[in-house]
Amino acid sequence: MISYDKAITDIIRIRRSWRSYRPDPLGHADKERIRAFLSGLDCPPFGSAVRLVLADAPAHGMGRVKGTYGVVTGASSFLIGVLRPSEGGFEDFGYLFEAAVLFVTSLGLGTCWMGGTFDRGFFADRASLAEGEIIPAISPVGIAADRRSMVDRLFVLAAGSRSRKPLTDLISRDGFDTPLAGGDLGPHALPLEMVRIAPSSSNRQPWRIVLKDGVMHFFLTRTLGYSLLFGEVDLQRVDMGIAMFHFEQTARELGMKGSWSVADPGISPLPSMTEYVVSWVP
Ligand SMILES: Cc1cc2nc3c(=O)[nH]c(=O)nc-3n(C[C@H](O)[C@H](O)[C@H](O)COP(=O)(O)O)c2cc1C
Fold it and tell me: Is residue 113 within 6 Å of ligand 1 at its C-beta?
């Protein structure tokens, strides 16, 4: 089991996407701790081959960091995520990369999931990408600047990053027609709240959860046209993996038992653009 030296709910609650950093390089001790965490990561739920690398960015002072299209300023280190695509690979990638993002957050450092605004060729060299591997996402790692840059503020505004959908839009009983609120969720209220406040690409929050016979079935409601934007990388499946990590880690810290399994409840018809992903069986 992955463990942190702070409560996972506290780490999830303080994490925000940061695109502006102080130029100070990451300390040697922090780098060592991050590398030790990465090398001790468990096998993800679907058993995919995911590799996470902490790499230095070229020197640039306070300026824009090469390879990020001017979106990131000041960061001197990057977390680069590498995947050998397979069934469940994008979910596994989201699960492990978020585990790392939250570890970095627990050290008081800033991060920002980036699945679109980076130059894949540039980071491929830094991660020594092998044949058959892809880079679904990267994240700057560093000390967040005191003020967000103009570009950073624009991203926060454009994605509506400060807000999230209410639980009743995401969770329902037996099918998709009976929404559930926090009070209806018993011991699962906190793990599900940690799903609700998770980061997602463009803050689309595509997770839908149906509670049926005590099992939590996770569905993905896709955003129209979104899958065409990122070619071979399915960022909304990555979002599902992030939600799985938040749910599982919170449930485990609360002492709840359960595991992931493919157990499609066969709900029909499904809402449009919606597909089944995985179930949490207590
Ligand atoms: C899979 C994924 C991909 C993302 N890609 C980008 C990106 O390419 N560029 C960017 O600036 N932010 C990116 N984000 C950050 C989201 O816009 C951000 O998480 C969301 O708006 C919520 O804001 P918060 O992280 O501050 O809570 C991505 C987030 C996720 C989870």
Answer: yes
